[in-house]
Amino acid sequence: MDMSKSLEIAKDRINPFFIQKIYWSWMSCLIGVEALANLINRFLEFQRLRDQSPTPSKPKSVFFRVYAALTVLARLVGSAALRPVLLFGRRVYTGPVMPWLFITAHFATTAVMCFYDLDTYNQWEWEEVGYRTGFTTIAQMPLVFILAGRQNIIGCLAGMGYQSLNWFHRWLARTLWLCATIHMGFWFRSWGRYSYITHQLRNEYYSQCGFAAWCVLTFIVISSAWPIRRLGYEFFVIQHLVMFIGFTVAVWLHVDEAVRAPVWASIGFLIFDRLVRYVWAAFINLSVFHKTAGTWRGLWTHHASFTPLSGNVARVTIQNPGARWKPGQHMFLTCHSIAPLQSHPFTIASIPEDGKIEFLIRAEKGATKRFWEHAVQNNVLEAADTAGSSENNRVVFLEGPYGKHRSLRQFDSLMLFAGGMGVTFTMPLLRDIVGRWKKASSQGDKPRLDVTRHIHFVWIIRSPEFYSWFGTELESVARDIDTCRRDAPDVIRDLKLSIYITEPGWMNLEDVLANQNQLGPAQTPAKTNLASNGGERRETADEHVPSPHSASRTNEGLATTKEEERSFTPQKMTLGGGRPSVDTIIRTTLQQNEGESAVVVCGPPALSDDVRRSVVCLTEERVADTGIGAQGIYLHVETFGW
What we know:
The chain is of the alpha/beta class. It is about 50% helix and about 15% strand. It folds into two domains: about 5-80 and about 95-270, no CATH class; about 285-640, Nucleotide-binding domain of ferredoxin-NADP reductase (FNR) module (Rossmann fold, 3-Layer(aba) Sandwich), CATH 3.40.50. The protein has helices at about 5-10, 15-50, 60-80, 95-115, 125-150, 155-160, 160-190, 195-205, 205-225, 225-230, 235-255, 260-285, 365-385, 425-440, 470-485, 510-515, 515-520, 580-590, 605-625, and strands spanning about 85, 90, 305-310, 315-320, 330-335, 345, 355-360, 395, 395-400, 415-420, 455-460, 495-500, 560-570, 575-580, 595-600, 635-640. A hairpin with a 4-residue loop joins strand 13 (about 560-570) and strand 14 (about 575-580). It is globular, with a radius of gyration of 27 Å. This is ferric-chelate reductase (NADPH).
């Protein structure tokens, strides 16, 4: 349908191009607010690291006190969440309120744009409603395409990772589909008065292209629903890209030349994202750009070794990588010799100072299962190879790194919660801060490397055998703390390491430590039991870790299935059986802080929901006691969904 005719029809109405400008003015304001907040947060980090006062994370000027108060209020509203809903015997978590408020506001805005000053009951205005909704649909396309990319402008300006924006991408795409459906419905309604629908679809070129675009978009929306897309990650990725290209072509053919600017913008954003990703991937994976990175002299930079660990987990190690990353980021891993034409995201479990990239990958199905099987087979071959040959290493390709959050070194107190495989996210964060402590203590804390004084690291695992995943790193962290206190005894640096084992009848962790060498590489099983409970996702969350909701509160922040909590080697760690009381742990840590605090959680939805609720409740208590000038709590919930 020639949409430019709407300019003639709407002489006494709002210009549809003006409607598109209103939409993008509104979106630009929201993006601008996020960008401004991100800029202020970056300046706060810069200021705090150069503040030599005893409380650098506490706001001192009037401006930053007002900003801190506004931030507290925004976090109260944004982090609040509804109670989980029991659906078909499973708990469904709705997540925080703020994203839903944005989606609701976006839906209301598009509804006003579609129907303002129009009478949907007047049959002589049905075609104009069709034109208006068509322009509104086209206006949303660039935003949907931007949010779909891993390299996108909004994420750069707002300081948000693509995985957070992907949720908005899906819901805005559903709003776009709804507008497109209303657009088509009102044209059908108008044609239906004369029994003209079939004739238009058979003979009118613009109608044919528009109907094809709607059919493709409908398939995209349906196939993007979680129960469907979880059935096959590889198929979903391929069909999603192909269908979006088909949708874009159909829309381009459907609209008039004067209306194609948003379509061209969408195509440009898609090409930009792919071009940047491919160029960067070529740079980090071609050895010609990293001649001094390692001993390999082949075409490709990265060669990985695969080691089986307890719990059907494979450790993938890449020495001398060609990419740089920050703790807590993730990369996409591809190994065509094991899982052809597949690329999956995994959290980087190591820090840059290690000189290597390590992924811990739990076997589920598809590529992760193949990685585990190869690691087990490779373990057998290495055991038979007394010369320790590295011929079993495989060429791998990396893309990234991705993932953004506020720098944690600017907060006075830091609480890290991990459930199962979620430790791959929190462990690098812990090691990075402690490493900065050690470096600062050796050079007299000039310049200041961080302002963090208190850290409480909590790791919840089902079996004590899982401790071997990061046993060496935890003991190294404890030794570094002893070094810091010896080199700088006057500087307050407090670290608590807590491990909770939820398995009934858990064994003493001293025995695990004594036999850690036996727990490192997993024994080669005659039969491997592999979990196959869904599609692939970044390996940070262990869905089998029990929820801490039912934990009773104790003075030690621990709800145990046994009446004991003991110290073990090294002495800075504590072991508990059962589930931790998240509320008590956070409350105890906040009692000693003197500035803004940070709470980070990565694990199953139940743990994330419990941490989020505890942070909101404690923030409300602090606001009620001291007003909106209460010291803030920054919350980061690391999740990944595709």
